[in-house]
Automatic annotation (TrEMBL), chains A, B:
Ranges of residues in domain OmpR/PhoB-type: 124-227
Record-annotated DNA-binding residue ranges: 124-227
Domain of life assignment: Bacteria
Protein name (Swiss-Prot/TrEMBL): Response regulator
Keyword terms of this UniProt record: DNA-binding, Phosphoprotein
Keyword Phosphoprotein attached: yes
Signal sequence segment: none
GO BP annotation list: regulation of DNA-templated transcription
Any Pfam family the entry gives: Trans_reg_C
Keyword RNA-binding recorded: no
Amino acid sequence: MKILIADDDPQILRALRITLGARGYDIVTAEDGAAAINAMIEHHPDLVMLDLGMPRLDGQAVIEGLRGWSQVPILVVSGRTGAADKVQALDAGADDYVTKPFSIDELLARIRALTRRLATTDDEPVVLLGAVTVDLSAKQVTRNAAGVAETVRLTPTEWLILGVLLRNPGKLVTRQSLLTEVWGPHHVGDTGYLRLYVGQLRKKLEADAAHPRYLLTEAGMGYRFSP
Amino acid sequence: MKILIADDDPQILRALRITLGARGYDIVTAEDGAAAINAMIEHHPDLVMLDLGMPRLDGQAVIEGLRGWSQVPILVVSGRTGAADKVQALDAGADDYVTKPFSIDELLARIRALTRRLATTDDEPVVLLGAVTVDLSAKQVTRNAAGVAETVRLTPTEWLILGVLLRNPGKLVTRQSLLTEVWGPHHVGDTGYLRLYVGQLRKKLEADAAHPRYLLTEAGMGYRFSP
DNA sequence: CCGGGTCCTAACGATTCCCTGACGGCTGCA
DNA sequence: TGCAGCCGTCAGGGAATCGTTAGGACCCGG
């Protein structure tokens, strides 16, 4: 479980990194709003903790920016206690709002509450593609060739693409949504690398990469995982 | 949007019913834990607001009971401000925790935040055309021929035309409106390709393309989807 | 400094899609 | 009967998209 913490106070960042790290979370930090957006694109965390008063890009703007292309749970941690601030942040797309100073136990409980739905609704532990089994949560692929189990290695980008496709079985996934979910919102036209990675995935997963059975392409629209 | 409010204080119940009712929510109330469970079974609300200190069945027990069989969002509204209480409720399955006294604006914002995810599930209907099923949101067409499901592929332009027709069941769709919705507003008069694509759609969807049953043509006017 | 791995760019045939033009069938009317 | 619209179909060329290969930029652990 990866958490992105964005706060302009290095002390708070350090304390949270230690506290949450001890609970088994992977921690990524950012010291301003722009860095938070970049970290989001780079690390794809499962949850974002945001301070509101940050330089370069205000927390409020970060929420609005993220919500344009990501559904990641957002937990605002702010010193502003006014109802108007809370309403503004929540309506912009934040999922919860905690005021400083906060109880660390309560914060942890709210993190668990926010991530619980992902953990339970995203329970697609293992997907079968013919002789290949894909375990999304364990990030492991094994191919069963002639009775011999053999592990296949995927790169991080390949995992991201495969994850989006496998989480929408049977549904068409637009090139555009694939690009924004993997590379962030600032990719409009160029599709060169997407074709490349899909080709590599087919080489690793399909029995016959030239005639794919599971990772289908819909010309002019996008790709589809056919279970 | 239906909300179940469980609180043992009739005054609070009345105030919340009026306030939330004015915002357009349907309100169901319960004055103790057991009644809350019963109301949940009877009314299937979209959100539950729970007080912790209730007679007959404590709010904590209600959360645990509900979570055994329902994923409904639970918002705890309690006078207990201790971190231990919050942790206990959140870990039992509550999604948010607000302490009394609360700002009504903040409460409303948190309700919107909790119900937002449900609302964004796009539900474009699945349309049945005899042995062919069309899923507009998944962009998928399957033909059920002699018990064997077979997928039919449509091109982007075919999807656009079919979408316009299927979203207006029974209604006549003018050639002109079809042209503008698919090719933009700068197409007047020319209808050659429209006939072509409708013909291809019939070939892929109709049992007998020469005598269409669903994609009907109105001479001189346009086309009509007859469900 | 050097390999290994990942990410991305650039270019090429090959495939698919879109649109044009032409032809034949049907209906209504002079 | 001939003619004029309108509709459905077929074939083909141009354009966009797709799959693939090759190679450079970058990071990182020997």
